[in-house]
Amino acid sequence: MTGPAERPADPEAATGQWLAALGGQPAATAVADPKPPTGAELAERMDLLAIPGQDREEVAAGLPDPAGDPARWEALVRCHQQLYADTGPDTPSTVPDWPTAPAALGAAGRYFYVHLYLLALPHALDRQRRLGIPDDVVAATFADLGAKLTTYRLGHGTGGFDRQGWMVRHFRGTLHRLGRLQFERGVLDADASGGDGAAAGGPAHGDPVLHVHIPGDGPLDPTGCDASFAAAREFQARHFPGAPHRHATCHSWLLDRQLAGHLPAGSNILAFQRRFTAFGARPVGDDDVLEFVFHTPPGTADLDRLPQKTTLHRALVRHLRTGGHWRTAHGWTELP
Length: 336
Description:
This protein is α+β, with helices and mostly antiparallel strands. It is 43% helix and 10% strand.
């Protein structure tokens, strides 16, 4: 005997609960609340965030105003307060846990956090100016939001954005793109990494480090990576002199040493791996590989339909077909 069928979720109730959760975040007064931008201001902000042309009309149409959509506006204001409730760009802080909007909100929900960052941009730029960050670094750093819109469309077939937690770093001023790579000021968390590099002369738990992130917009050319690492130490010393960094760390499937058995010896990826000394745990990272390389959301990959256009494509799929797993690996290196 079976019980009654489970009732489908009420879309209005789900939306109400989501708005209530965001609107119920603790009030904070670290910075002034945002104001709706004018048409010209909105266009300028979209340019700086590199929002793709095919997304701009829906983004502009869905931006709420305090009178027309007070509940959504209040939710944005509270997110803006939490975004800047940190202690500033010199101190890493906890990233807010902002839930993705319910599907019932449609485009207004899929672009909700784009609206947040459009509203948050003036204060973020003020922080960059006070730190003396060059305009080209600012532009390269904030263009990452547009890149995430592009990968969302590739993965979902429609416009949207789901990297709300990731962009907190850019707007708080703890992450900057310096040429090919991104560098984020932080500390080594040995618990999260499954160990540290202290025994081999690397960073210990709690040491300041630069976390290296790899934008997915081109090859890992060794010359470009050399230039990025060379720039990183000088950049930190000039703009953040109170927090010296000796080491950089990277946590990525690109450091999985199994790749050496699948790629040519002269591969850019293998050259990038050789910069780092391995440490810590190696959890399964298949979902990261599929999402980063193939733009396939977790749990949706069909190996028979993935593109096989490059040596990397073929190597990744071949390993998964044989029952293997790709691993997220950790590595440290001394800054030049």
